[in-house]
Model the fold of this input.
Amino acid sequence: MDIIQGIIIGIVQGLTEFLPVSSSAHLVFIQKILGVQSSLAFDTFLHLGTLIAVMWFFRYDIYKMILSWLSSIRDILSGRFREGFYSDPYKRLAWYVILATIPVGIVGVLFEDSVDSLFAGALYVPAFFLFVTGTILYLSQRMTSGEINYNTITKKEALFMGLGQACAILPGLSRSGTTIAAGLTIGLNKEFAAKFSFILSIPAILGAFLLQVKDIGSAMDANFLPVFLGFIASIIAGYMAIKWMLDLIQNKSLDIFAYYCWVIGILVFMGSIAHIF
Done:
């Protein structure tokens, strides 16, 4: 892998992690097109890059959530948890992110080998689920915009979005697309559905990073510069993707991503069947 290839892969990872088009599918596709095979160490750097991007973008909310969560621990010890929980939206948001992360953690632990085999399989697998992503997005845009926000979200809505994230462990099924669509389906307003989806990605990306971090040392070889520049590219692209999505979901339709997923999914599926790729 050379420098240009590393930067391209980093940009693709950063953009598709937060745009509803499936980062897992696009990383498989772009590596196939470029004729390179990403190392586990490079994947670790890419996850770290997108993690930095989302944490920096939502740094104020994360700071408030951490402080409120620590405060809620004190509430538990003093027997005032219920009172504090319902008076501070950031306490609820912190606990609901934890609750919504449980499904993907369970699925990741129980079905890790099965999911890995899907990633190692033919391209028609992510292509098929990319088509499914487009369908989910398209249908979600036909839902009436709800009014649920960070002040009114309940554990039911948080858990439903968490289940959507757990399903998105499948290659080609977009994590952001599935969780945003799940939020819109159950009545979250558009901006908060996207915001909660992105914040919900933090524990999932952090978990993937921690599982891979033991291999990060293997990147300190002759390929270090492509890996490092790809890492920087993923941070910049990820930050831009979050900003773009939050603006887009408030002012326009996500149908363009549904059409994109359908077209790319069909093309790659047909190409895979015909052994073009």
